[in-house]
Amino acid sequence: MASTPRPKENPESTSGTNPFEAAYRALFDAFDDDGSQTLSRAELVRNLHATGILEDDPRIQGILDATRDGDGEREMGFPEFVALIQHHSGLLQRAMRNSLIVPDFLSLTEEIDRIHHDLLPVRAGRVADCIPRLARIDPEQFAISLCTVDGQRHSVGDADVPFCVQSVSETVSYCMALEEHGVDTGVLMSCALIRPELSLADRFDHVARTWQRLAGGRRLGFDNSVHLSERQTADRDFALGHSMRESKAFPPGTDLLRTLEFYSQCCSIELDARMLAVVAATFADGGVCPLTGDRVFSQETVRHCLSLMSSCGMYDFSGEFAFTVGLPAKSGVSGALMVVIPGLMGFCVWSPRLDELGNSVRGIEFCRQLVKKFEVHPYASVSSGSRRKDPRKRRDQSAVESAVALCWAAGQGDLDEVRRLASAGADISTGDYDGRTPLHLAAAEGHVEVTGYLLAHGADPAATDRWGGTALTDAQRGGHTHVAELLGPHTAVPRQKATRSDSGSTAASAK
Predict the structure, then answer these.
(1) Measured in Å, how far apart are the chain's first and last C-alpha atoms?
(2) 251-260: which pairs have CB atoms within 8 A and are 24 or more residues apart?
(3) Is 455 exposed, middle or buried (0-12, 13-18, 19+ CB in 10 A)?
(4) How many beta carbons lie within 10 A of that of residue 9, not counting itself?
(5) CA-to-CA distance for 107 and 152, rounded, in angstroms?
(6) Distance CA 151, CA 477 (A)
(7) 3-class SS of residue 340
């Protein structure tokens, strides 16, 4: 994947234009890789792909179609570009300015690809045999696909191979029942409540259309052989259904056999990892599909569903999964796993080898690696000393913020905060814009304990700021004898490069 492009300087391009046209010109120039003052489809696709916006994204089809001329392609000039992007400029500008929800998308995808590669040798588990048709699935297939709430997408592995959603279908069925009838529980009850007045075929079409909206408009499939195989072996579902009917749990007039048939049909809906990742992202965005802007479910409905996914989405492993991973997820015996990171992104992992509890072995391990490497756990904010990456931040943003915070803490003499930041990976030798390190600032303010801690943990006492001063010269200027005594054995006083006022050497620099 290419590196994320930066808008190019073009000082003459905005002359005599209004601010909106100037912004469009800057955006046009950012896409115009060869400086030809025209845009090709290849330039648009290449630059957007670097940010995670893919060629089949329905939000950009109007712009891409404008570069077609019959069976060929043509170049687009600036006036035509301006006319076309009126409804898309927000997305394009955010993409080119690195302002999408995951600004360093390349770093994220590289890590996902690395996890996929590391998990390929895993051969633990076996394919499901509770449904005979599923027992014939190739166990080595493995896909990971992600979609952010801004519609940034990436896939690796067998992401275009269709599979049945199986129990993952329960999430959508539950949400549909909630939308129509309010709070309720149980997948069989949900299936009984979804448009019971319609024929079985029309009810299934209704569910299929909802799945299609969740997946951004892509048409899904249906595996009839799995449906027939499941219907013949669904003894537990039949037993549960009869028990519920005996307890008069179903609404009056419910046809149990039709309800069980309907449930089996929903489980046999077929899609691929790319599509299920978009579905997961729709849940992550509170019910709005990131590729179309279509609100499929209300925020309240999604909140209820995510709560159930967190508590019981992984069969009998749900409690441990909530403890070790902490993300809402739903698995199916086809090897499918849908994972939601609310407000950020959704994942689909598909790997047919299952553990003894019916969950994808690779899928579970992927989730463990995900929360180990990234700050995505819902309670991550309460932890300290984390070296995990925050996908919401730019590549260098965390380092810069840590350096600023460390300089401030050192200047204030806050030893506890200095220790916390250092243990979390902040570089204690990084200076501010004047080259003044935490050691400079601690010494300038006479903070003996902080100075001692920084020296003991590798701070460079010979580091000079842009005026040529060291931490020792700062301590001496401030009359901080005890600090100077700590620094003295490590540092000789250098010749000053430039003069400056005492006010520039105190904690004001830290501010």
Answers:
(1) 39
(2) 251/192, 251/193, 251/196, 253/196, 254/192, 254/196, 258/200, 259/188, 259/191, 259/192, 260/188, 260/231, 260/234
(3) buried
(4) 8
(5) 13
(6) 55
(7) strand
Q: Which residue has the tokens 């297939």?
A: 141
Contact 187, 194 (CB under 8 A): no
Q: Directed axis angle between helix 397-412 and helix 415-423, to 10°?
A: 160
Output DSSP code: residue 494.
P
pLDDT tens, residue by residue, 375-432: 998 877 544 456 788 898 876 556 666 788 889 889 999 888 888 788 767 788 888 8
Report the domain count for the chain.
3
What three-state secondary structure class fits 502? helix
Residue 335 and residue 129 in contact, taking contact as beta carbons nearer than 8 Å: no
Based on the fold, state whether residues 407 and 372 are members of the same structural domain.
no
* Cα dihedral value 445, 448, 449, 452, nearest 10: 110
**50 plus 123 within the same structural domain:** no
CA dihedral over 478, 484, 488, 491, signed as positive or negative: negative
Residue 23 belongs to domain spanning: 19-96
* Within-domain flag for 308: yes
- Give the predicted TM-score (pTM) of the model: 0.75
Tokens 């967190």 label which residue?
Answer: 310
Type of residue numbered 180: E
How is residue 364 written in tokens? 């579970």
Query: What stretches of 155-272 show up as alpha helix (H) in DSSP?
Result: 169-181, 187-193, 200-214, 224-233, 235-246, 256-267
Helix (H) / strand (E) element for 269: namely strand 269-271
Please report, for residues 64, 117, 145, 273, 367, the alpha-carbon distance to residue 337 in angstroms, rounded to integers and kept in the order given: 33, 18, 11, 9, 10
Are 229 and 198 in the same domain?
A: yes
Residue for token digits 């030893």? 415
Task: With CA atoms as reference, report the closest residue to 111 among 154, 71, 69, 158.
Answer: 154
Q: Which of 6-20, 209-223, 426-440 has the lowest mean pLDDT?
A: 6-20
- Alpha-carbon distance of 222 to 270, in angstroms, equals 5
Q: Could you tell me the pLDDT band of residue 237, with boundaries at 50, 70 and 90?
A: confident
